[in-house]
Write the structure tokens for this entry.
Amino acid sequence: MSDSMIKIALLQDCDRGGMESAACQTEKLIREAAGNGAKIICTQELFLTEYFCWKQDSSFFDLAIGIPSCYTDRFSRLAAELEVVLILSLFERRAPGIYHNTAAVIDADGTLLGKYRKMHIPQDPGFEEKFYFTPGDLPFRSFHTKYADIGVIICWDQWYPESARLTALAGASILFCPTAIGVIESEPEELGLQQRDAWLNVQCGHAVANGCYYAAVNRVGTEHGTKFWGSSFVADFYGNPLVSGSCDKEEILYAECDLKAMEDHRRMWPFFRDRRIDAYDGILKRYAE
């Protein structure tokens, strides 16, 4: 494999019934992915816990952890041992009464490079996230890892082109999106299929518009009336899927990203060059009256 080819892995998994069980299972999956040549490995959203946002319950705040913590220390040691980059989606306790939905990025030498806090927080039946998460206050950014410059956005961020654009403009060649999304079982099946298609389409559009690779990793299984639809994928800069996951199976998805081919593509379609940054003031308004 050339220096420009980076193999990535997505861990599509289910709730494991407890934080320690989830940590052990994820360590097992990371070891398997690294053994198969993956250099950058990403978990699903909130991988240590169930998707607890199905209802408002203050006792669930006890699931939050600090960053750093014993869990990030554990995975930092693992990253250094295996020489892999890890993206861990966690429930962060920042201070009493301030909690975030956060991704920690660990470099291949075990260094905690930093974190990204979910910016856009949804509030829907079965997705009561505004009760738990303070909106992120860190910038959209790129993390310079041993293998590639990468960026992270989280779940609801995926519907906002600004999230992907600003992350790509910060220098990210591969955008990762840990996710927990599915359909409420009481809703019509056809509606769920349409929502899943929209989810796939909008994210593939981010890959095209930003001339980069895009990797979304979702959970599977049914939790408290929500059926998570899996379907994790990696898309190239044409929006074509390099790999697509099942709707209902725990699995590791692998894809090879060619950073040289991505640069050649951007030379042919220079979207960043042709942006009219002098004409975009309106994007900072809620709505153009």
About this structure: The chain has one domain: 5-272. The helical segments are 19-35, 70-82, 161-169, 189-210, 259-268. The chain has a mean pLDDT of 97.
